[in-house]
Amino acid sequence: MREEQRVAGDGESSGEEDADKETAPASVWNTDDSVPAVCTNIAPLATLTACPSPLVAFSLVNVLYAYAFSLRLVNGDVQGAMRGEFIEVVLAISKALDGSHVYTSTGEALQAAVESIRSSPHVSTPLLLARAMEDVSALLAGGDEAPGSHYTLAAISHLDCILAKGRQCRGGEGKTGRAARYRAGKKCAFLLSWAREHQHVLATLSAEARLEFTASLQQLLQVEKDKSTLEKAWGAKRPPAQRVLIEELNP
Fold first, then answer.
1. DSSP string computed for the chain
2. Cα–Cα dist 111/133, whole Å
3. Are 38 and 150 in contact (CB under 8 A)?
4. Cβ-contact 136, 110 below 8 angstroms
């Protein structure tokens, strides 16, 4: 599997003009030629579970967000030392990967990932958080390949491959140690089986993720608009210092 991928639109910026550009269709990878290979040994879902929960769909959304955001954060570089950082970020963002959380909607799954990022030491911007939602929508849409689950399967396959290589290396403890990476790999295998047999659900998830992206983008634009209005009123980026109206005189 080709492991070195580049993220579309590496540079981060803010402001209404830049944010408007982000309404164009997103792609986690530069071109269709750089889409990772899909695992060839995906197990039939029936061999893993007799009756999968419908909530699995939202775990998939949560994991895809962690993958897309982390890939952007490391600028697509998952080689060497950067592989460890990528894995660390993914495991910190996605609580679904270790099976500790269950989500009941696409919005909840995405916002939970966003909150994990905000409470972590990893540097981010509101625009990057929103763009990762757009990436999730694009991955779930499937691209031009048949079947429609192609991008989703490629993303989870890529994540599984990175985790497998990470398990071969020492380092990482607790939530990022080898045991955590092993559990995450098992979760990826399950999601691959589920996604391949639930292609009809992915289009709906994609539409819901895009709605979340649009709402986040509009909120970002409103914040930038309010900020611009205040800066014009202040005549600077910060409010003027408060004036002392009454000065107490010492006897």
1. -------SS-----SHHHHHHTTSPP-SSSSGGGPPPPPS-PPPGGGT-SS--TTHHHHHHHHHHHHHHHHHHTTT--SHHHHHHHHHHHHHH-STTTT----SSHHHHHHHHHHHHHTSSS---HHHHHHHHHHHHHHHH-TTSSSTTHHHHHHHHHHHHHHHHHHTS----GGGSHHHHHHHHHHHHHHHHHHHH-HHHHHHHHHHHHHHHHHHHHHHHHHHHHHHHHHHHHTSSSPPPPP-SSPPPP-
2. 10
3. yes
4. yes
What does the buried/exposed string (b/e) look like for 154-177 if buried means 16 or more CB atoms within 10 Å of the residue's CB?
A: bbbbbbbbbbebbbeeeebeeebe
Q: Kindly write down the DSSP assignment for every residue of 226-245, as one continuous string.
A: HHHHHHHHHTSSSPPPPP-S
Residue 95 identity (one-letter amino acid): K
Q: Splitting the chain (251 residues) into consecutive groups of 10 residues, what average pLDDT does each group show?
A: 36 39 50 84 94 95 96 88 91 88 96 91 83 94 77 95 80 64 93 95 96 87 69 67 62 59
Per-residue CA distances from 222 to 126, 130, 140, 215 (Å): 12, 14, 28, 11
Report d(CA 166, CA 189) in Å as an integer: 16
Cβ–Cβ < 8 Å for 133, 216: yes
- Report the distance separating Cα 130 and Cα 117, nearest Å: 12
Angle at 79 between CA 142 and CA 175, to 5 degrees: 80
Buried b / exposed e along 211-243 (16+ C-beta atoms within 10 A): ebbeebbeebeeebeeeeeeeeeeeeeeeeeee
